[in-house]
Amino acid sequence: MGKCIGYTAGAITFMAIGALATGLALYFTYPEARRSVQTLTYSDEEMRFATCELVAAPNFTVKGTIYFRQNVSYDTTVITGTVEGLTVGEHGFHIHEFGANGGRCKDAGKHYNPDGQPHGGQDSDQRHVGDLGNIRSVEQGASTLARVQIEDALVTLYGDRAVLGRAVVVHAGRDDLGFS
């Protein structure tokens, strides 16, 4: 999916008890004010959460919140949330290389692909880590709503492959899942 006419993008941020992260910076409410998520010592047996507030690209009114939960480092990651204001139909849903605060999806770079795999769908044997397929938007009253419910084995909130600080991008069109 080379064209980013995308609707919306937002950076995935880490959440822990007493902490909220923006990008990879973590701000605690107690004196140890500022540390990088990468230098914090958390157990691989500790449940982790992250969230992404979607911000509309210029001239669009799309909004949403995406939540990430991983029980332990070797478990799948559950991705849930809603996106409002998309056109009815399918929209590519990806994690991109960089954070994109402010809705400018071109700032997000390419799909997150630390392993150099080909583009594919979420169920493909070989795919980018960030390839999460399509979400479907349906009419919901005066607006539209897309519900996100994904369980994924490649997306992680642990280690140097963590998706923290990267962007979730909802594209204007359907993703071809690598078949074009």
Automatic annotation (TrEMBL):
Report what the protein is called. Superoxide dismutase [Cu-Zn]
Domain Superoxide dismutase copper/zinc binding: start-end pairs: 62-178
Give TM regions.
6-28
Which keywords does this Swiss-Prot/TrEMBL entry list? Membrane, Transmembrane, Transmembrane helix
Instruction: Give the span(s) annotated as Disordered.
Output: 106-129
Q: Which GO molecular function, any one, fits this protein according to its record?
A: copper ion binding
Provide the gene name from the record: LOC108669051
A GO BP annotation? superoxide metabolic process
